[in-house]
Amino acid sequence: MPKQSPIPEPLDKPFYDACNQGKLVVQYCKTCDRLQFPPEPKCPMCGAENLEWKQLSGHGHIYSYAVMHDTPVSLLFKEQPFNIAIIEMEQGIKMLSHLPGTPADKVPVGAEVQVFFETTPGTGQKVPEWRVVK
Predict the structure, then answer these.
(1) What is the spatial distance between Cα 102 and Cα 118, in angstroms, rounded to a whole number?
(2) Which pLDDT does position 74 carry in this prediction?
(3) Are the C-beta atoms of residues 117 and 97 closer than 8 Å to each other?
(4) What angle do CA 48, 51, 56 make, to 5 degrees?
(5) What kind and span of H or E run contains 13?
(6) Which residue from 19, 3, 20 is spatially nearest to 37, judged by alpha carbons?
(7) Torsion of Cα atoms, 124 then 25 then 130 then 9, to 10°
(8) Which residue from 21, 54, 75, 87 has the highest number of Cβ atoms inside 10 Å of its Cβ?
(9) What does the pLDDT look like over 39-93, one tens digit per residue?
(10) In sequence order, which residues have a C-beta less than 8 Å from that of residue 107 and are 6 or more positions away?
């Protein structure tokens, strides 16, 4: 499935730099000991700006999903229908995936998944996706 190419901004550049290195990272608030995604300038729980980046394991499970039948994104028109899955990482953070290799509406909720990184065609930026572990 073709991916849109994100253009990193200062706030999310460490996330995308890590993706380019094959690593999945999220922000960590050192004040309240909490992981957060997507990145924010400060912790939404305690307001601290005492944030660093922590690497996740890349393992998780499928929490839920929906099937997109009518996307407004022209790049994805010919890929319809496709999955949009919520992935819950081992560390509790939730992220989205198209689940490449999993047919639309054949998503095994609860199944174990592993992150991998796809290169986007527009800029070469890598982005995380997940595949079901057999």
Answers:
(1) 15
(2) 86
(3) no
(4) 135
(5) helix 13-20
(6) 19
(7) -40
(8) 87
(9) 999 999 999 999 999 999 999 999 999 999 999 988 889 999 999 999 999 999 9
(10) 62, 65, 83, 85, 99
